Amino acid sequence: MDDKKIEIGTIVTMKKGHPCGENLWEVVRVGADVKLKCTKCGRIIMMPRIEFNKKIKKIVS
Going by fewer Cβ within 10 Å, which terminus of the chain is more open, N or C? Predict the structure, then answer.
């Protein structure tokens, strides 16, 4: 999923779901790191952009 338009507020699906049962994440920050917020429980995680590009499944909206 290289060169996709990832912006703040974009909803994405990751290959591996969150332990709370949700698989949708909202992009909160974009840069060298990507900050994601679980749409169900609100947990926020951060991961390097390279790791994010490997783990993203699809862009929902």
Answer: C
Q: Is residue 2 pLDDT above 80, yes or no?
A: no
pTM, full prediction: 0.85
Q: What angle do CA 2, 13, 56 make, to 5 degrees?
A: 30
The pair of three-digit structure tokens given for residue 7, joined into one six-digit string:
């912006």
In terms of phi and psi (left: phi > 0; alpha: psi -120 to 50; beta: otherwise), the region of 39 is alpha
Sequence spans of domains, the chain: 11-59
Q: Cβ contacts of residue 11 below 8 Å, gap of 6+?
A: 24, 25, 26, 27, 39, 59, 60, 61
SS3 of residue 15 by DSSP: coil
